[in-house]
Amino acid sequence: MNPTPEDGITLTVCPPLTDHDLNDLFAASWPGHDPISFAGQLGHSLCWIAAHRADRLVGYVNVATDGGIHAFILDTTVHPAERRAGLGVRLVRAAADEAKARGAEWLHVDYEPHLEGFYAQCGFRSTAAGLMQL
């Protein structure tokens, strides 16, 4: 994927990402984030999209799969310095395009109520679903 000329951010499908880069992004974006190893998550992903400004990771979204026609958006993350400029929507839409290209027919996302407008901008519609906390 090419950078958008006006913002200099490049979106890339499934680039190599280090735990260091992902943990730095998550620490900046999610208060209380504890460093983790992302290798296991990426190994089970259908795809992921990374956003870079120069060499700095500034956005990320992961797409998990059930191995069939369902895919799931996880960990949509945009660095606080890059928010409110449309990058999150670009990431999710790119993830949807890539998931479709890889055979997914349905894309699911769970989100907190305050994110409903964001995910509606990405093209999601509300549905009834069940959830069980384990």
CATH class value? Alpha Beta
Low-confidence runs of at least 5 consecutive residues: none
CA-atom Rg in angstroms: 15 Å
Question: Superfamily at the CATH H level?
Answer: Gcn5-related N-acetyltransferase (GNAT)
Calculate the mean pLDDT score and round it: 92
How would you explain this protein's 3D organization?
The structure is a single chain. The chain has 134 residues and is an alpha+beta fold. It has one domain: Aminopeptidase. The protein is built from 4 helices and 5 strands; from the N terminus they run βααβββαβα. The chain has a 5-stranded mixed sheet with strand order 1-2-3-4-5. Strand 3 (56-65) and strand 4 form a beta hairpin. Helix 3 packs across helix 4 (116-122). It is globular and about 40 Å long. It starts with 8 loop residues before the first strand and ends in a 12-residue tail after the last helix. The model has no long low-confidence stretch (mean pLDDT 92).
Give the SSE layout.
Elements: E1 9-13, H1 19-29, H2 39-43, E2 45-53, E3 56-65, E4 70-78, H3 87-101, E5 106-108, H4 116-122
Parallel strand pairs: 4-5
Antiparallel strand pairs: 1-2, 2-3, 3-4
Structure characteristics:
4 helices; Aminopeptidase; five-stranded mixed sheet; 134 residues
Short description:
The chain has helices spanning 19-29, 39-43, 87-101, 116-122, and strands at residues 9-13, 45-53, 56-65, 70-78, 106-108. It is an alpha+beta fold and 134 residues long.
